[in-house]
Automatic annotation (TrEMBL):
<dbReference type="Pfam" id="PF03161">
    <property type="entry name" value="LAGLIDADG_2"/>
</dbReference>
<keyword id="KW-0496">Mitochondrion</keyword>
<protein>
    <recommendedName>
        <fullName>Homing endonuclease LAGLIDADG domain-containing protein</fullName>
    </recommendedName>
</protein>
<dbReference type="GO" id="GO:0004519">
    <property type="term" value="F:endonuclease activity"/>
</dbReference>
<feature type="domain" description="Homing endonuclease LAGLIDADG">
    <location>
        <begin position="44"/>
        <end position="215"/>
    </location>
</feature>
<dbReference type="InterPro" id="IPR027434">
    <property type="entry name" value="Homing_endonucl"/>
</dbReference>
<dbReference type="InterPro" id="IPR004860">
    <property type="entry name" value="LAGLIDADG_dom"/>
</dbReference>
Length: 235
């Protein structure tokens, strides 16, 4: 199968995790000492979530990177699945995320959960790949890391039903970046997509055409939380 860059094979990863168990599960471990290894699955989850709502935070000390993952209260099952997945592998505390309340500018109350991973110096390369001058971008070589699992995470994060197809909220990315993403999705997965306006001053969304919904479902459905299958528009 195609190998994801910066990943170790599963056998070596499991062996190293056993040897370095303390380094993953001890939150007081220094980020310079918490160096990995990272399996393809973990890298895929990080890539997919950062394409979506998550962001990577370079710590003030500048020696490591952590993932900041947030979901609204409506997606609690997905968030708890995400938390369990990374916590069991030593990437965050096992303490269940708490519900937070935020009042937005327009006065609306927003309930959400958030997860912060531990800090890893060995995740700095992903931060460097996704951020330019403090702004999140789509990496030019994203196709190398866009595994079916990464695509599933991205879709669970920001995907929704749209007409007879589906759309992914990509409002923070530039039009040129999304044009390149459409090309890469066609080449790698034979998905026909287009860019649509997200509204006045709201950027763009990536639309997945009806004829590609069956293909998308075959690629990502097995990785999705069952309660989010509805996003596949009955496919």
């Amino acid at each position: 199968r195609e190998e994801c860059l910066k990943c170790l094979n599963t056998e070596n990863t499991i062996l190293s995790l056993i040897i370095n168990r303390r380094g993953f599960f001890n939150k007081s471990y220094n980020s310079l000492e918490r160096i990995g290894p990272h399996s393809e699955e973990i890298i895929s989850i990080i890539i997919g979530s950062v394409l979506g709502d998550s962001h990577l935070e370079k710590r003030k000390e500048g020696v490591g990177t952590r993932i900041h993952f947030e979901q609204c209260s409506n997606n609690v099952e997905y968030l708890m699945w995400f938390h369990k997945y990374i916590a069991e592998r030593g990437y965050s505390s096992k303490t269940k995320p708490k519900l937070h309340k935020r009042i937005r500018k327009e006065g609306k109350i927003f309930y959400h959960y958030r997860i912060n991973s531990y800090t890893f110096s060995s995740l700095n390369w992903i931060h460097e790949m996704f951020y330019k001058d403090g702004v999140k971008i789509i990496p030019k070589d994203i196709e190398k890391y866009l595994t079916p699992l990464a695509l599933a995470i991205w879709f669970m994060d920001d995907g929704s039903v749209s007409g007879q197809g589906a759309k992914i909220a990509t409002n923070c990315f530039k039009e040129e970046e999304l044009k390149e993403m459409c090309k890469k999705l066609k080449i790698k997965y034979n998905l026909d997509t287009s860019i649509q306006s997200g509204g006045v001053k709201k950027g763009y969304v990536l639309y997945i055409k009806k004829d590609s919904m069956g293909t998308l479902s075959k690629i990502i459905k097995e990785y999705m939380v069952k309660s989010l299958h509805y996003k596949l528009n009955k496919y």
